[in-house]
Specification:
With 186 residues, the protein is of the alpha+beta class. It has 4 helices and 10 strands, in the order ββββαβββββαβαα. Strands 1, 2, 3, 4, 5, 6, 7, 8, 9 and 10 form a 10-stranded mixed β-sheet that branches.
Amino acid sequence: MDSLENQFLIAMPSLNDTFFERSLIYICEHDEKGAMGIMINRPSGIIVDELLQQMELAEEPQPVTSLGREVLVGGPVNPERGFVLHTNQDCWSNSDPITDSLMLTTSQDILSCLGSDKAPDKFLIALGYAGWTRGQLEQEIADNSWLSVPATAELLFDIEHEERWQLAAESLGFDIWQLSNLAGHA
């Protein structure tokens, strides 16, 4: 299977009553070892400004005014660990480029500049991530749990969280609710 890096995973309606019900996951990494992604449509109830104040990172806290103002639940793995998915800005101590225009940073130094002119143009903060071992994601796709579509910056950063899953599903060109949860194999 080709890499799903820089793709969205759209949870199928059959994943109801699970952690991933109606989730939209941005795949940051996918190779022969497995996959890692950040759920981008489930707010945690924590506001970025509050997080920064609690961590005492901002010297002169300035309100964060982007859609990134709410911390997201990134997934069930390591929910105490923070991830910042942001537009390209190569000045942080632990950043990995995903595309020419997107990076994932896991170091705290980026948090101290949010709300300032040093911050990335667009960003989102998530606690935890979604992870799959070798072959697990491919099996889940074969089992009809996920659909994938190319990621867009608009869905990542500009659309309200509660609208992201539906808009990603609509980008497929059909009504996701009309799909069967049974996988067919020839």
